[in-house]
Amino acid sequence: MTRLAAGATAGRLWSAIAMIAAYVAVPMLLGSDNYVMSLIVAAMVIGCVALSWALLGNMGGMVSFGHSAFFGVGAYVSAIVTVKLGVPVLAGIALGGVGALLASVAMLPVLRLRGPYFALAILAYAHIFRILATEWSSLTGGSGGIANIPVLPTIFGYDLSGKTGAYLVILTIVLLFALAYRAIRASYYGIALRAMHDSEDATRVVGVNSTLLKGLMLMVSAFMAGVAGAFNAHYINFLEPDYAFNSVWVTVPIVAAIFGGYRTITGPVVGALVVYLLDQLVFKSLIPTGHQLVLGGLLVAMIIFSPTGLLALLRRKNHA
């Protein structure tokens, strides 16, 4: 018990140090470098989607190839309500998450499918939403997109539309989602969901409604990805269908989640930071064309040598 208590205390201490570094040290040291801060913000957006993807996989037991659907729907909902209805930006971002959640409700029938069939069905929905965004030009602007999307607001005299302000906003969003993920995992529902991974039929026998729980995890995951998309729309101030529903919003988060350790809470976010920043700051400068191939090689190496991800590898090194 003493060792467990000491371990928990050490974990809380390291978490506090990480939070201080994230909220204070990063803006102080890098805030004046707009290029690096823009890369960090982009990596955090990817990390937010990776976290939502990992939650669906760990809690819901489902692999999704269509998170770009939730990202794109969230982006468009927030852009439309702020541009056309004058809704405040932060409220619009929240509504973007709600819009993605409602979009996931349309996907509930595919919960009957399992494995690759579910993944492909969700991917098909992403293409459907992209086509809707392109064809419904009276609402979405069609292929021309939506320009002049309102920027992040000024709160208490601090301008959130700058690189550092945007970083603090997306950092807070990711932190809140990580805490929500942790609460779900520790709850009765989290225990039931993890039990379903071992035997879904057995959990049904004892009265667990597996379909309902999977549906709830799909909606939570969709909300998280939708908020990420909504934030990104206000961060870049422009939106068009091919960008909003681009496959990059599912492929890169999957790579990041697996690389960092998708069975942990912090792994997907750490993986996104490492993968994206290495790609943009190192590999891209060394290999301007085809630098993504290096990331593919790194991912293969990580799967071979540490299938549970980067964080698990670092823990093993520390204990060695």
What layout of secondary structure does this protein have?
Layout lengths: L1 H29 L3 H26 L7 H18 L4 H17 L10 H20 L1 H4 L5 E2 L6 E2 L2 E2 L3 H24 L1 H11 L1 H6 L4 H27 L1 E2 L1 H4 L3 H13 L6 H20 L5 H14 L4 H10 L1
Antiparallel strand pairs: 1-4, 2-3
Give a structural overview.
- There is one protein chain.
- With 320 residues, the chain is an all-alpha fold.
- The protein has a domain at 35-247.
- Helices cover 76% and strands 2% of the residues.
- It is built from 15 helices and four strands.
- The chain has helices spanning 2-30, 34-59, 67-84, 89-105, 116-135, 137-140, 163-186, 188-198, 200-205, 210-236, 241-244, 248-260, 267-286, 292-305, 310-319; strands at residues 146-147, 154-155, 158-159, 238-239.
- Strands 1-4 form a two-stranded antiparallel ribbon. Strands 2-3 form a two-stranded antiparallel sheet.
- Strand 2 (154-155) and strand 3 form a beta hairpin.
- Helix 3 crosses helix 10 (210-236), helix 4 packs antiparallel against helix 10 and helix 7 runs antiparallel to helix 10 (210-236).
- The longest helix is centred in the N-terminal third of the chain and has 29 residues, at 2-30.
- It is globular, with a radius of gyration of 20 Å.
- The model has no long low-confidence stretch (mean pLDDT 85).
User: What is the helix content?
Assistant: over 70%
Shape: globular
Order of helices and strands: HHHHHHEEEHHHHEHHHHH
What ranges have pLDDT less than 50 throughout 5 or more consecutive residues? none
Main beta-sheet annotation: 2 strands, antiparallel
Oligomeric assembly = single chain
Fraction of residues in β-strands:
under 5%
Tell me the total number of β-strands: 4
Summed over residues and divided by their number, the pLDDT gives a mean of: 85
Rounded to the nearest angstrom, the distance between the terminal CA atoms is 23 Å
Tally of individual helices:
15
Strand order of the largest sheet: 1-4
Based on CA atoms alone, the radius of gyration comes out at 20 Å
Provide the structure class: mainly alpha
